Amino acid sequence: MGRCAGNRATKRHARRDAQERRTGMTAAGKGDAARAERLKAALRENLRRRKAQGRARAETGAPPQAETERDG
Questions:
Q1: Engineered SS bond to 41: which of 14, 16, 25, 63, CB 3.0-4.6 Å?
Q2: Domain spans of the chain?
Q3: Whole-angstrom Cα distance, residue 65 to residue 53?
Q4: Which residue from 50, 48, 8 is spatially nearest to 25, judged by alpha carbons?
Q5: Would you call 1 exposed, middle or buried from its count of C-beta atoms within 10 A (0-12, 13-18, 19+)?
Q6: 27, 37 contact by CB (below 8 A)
Q7: DSSP class of residue 21?
Q8: Which H/E stretch holds residue 22?
């Protein structure tokens, strides 16, 4: 018999909790509501990062990055 799978799951959850504390995503709990909150937080962070990148490109005079279908 091998190791208990529960130990791996516990470590995985502990890692995710630590990451959420670092990034400010604090959707504690399980289920669809917590997942949706994590996704919303990730989208907000991505938007913040992309805006910062756009400002940096504008300041340096670099050409804008090619738009993709996802950007539309």
A1: 25
A2: 5-59
A3: 10
A4: 48
A5: exposed
A6: yes
A7: H
A8: helix 5-23
Residues 34, 35, 40, 41, CA torsion sign: positive
What is the b/e burial string over 45-54, where b = at least 16 CB atoms within 10 angstroms of the residue's CB?
Answer: eeeeeeeeee
Tokens of 38: 């994590």
What radius of gyration, in Å, describes the C-alpha atoms of the chain?
18
Tokens representing 18 are 């630590």
In this structure, what DSSP letter does residue 28 have? -
SS3 70: coil
pLDDT digits (tens, 9 = 90+) for 7-56: 666 777 778 777 777 776 655 567 888 888 999 999 999 999 999 999 88
What the block records as the tokens of 45 is: 């962070």
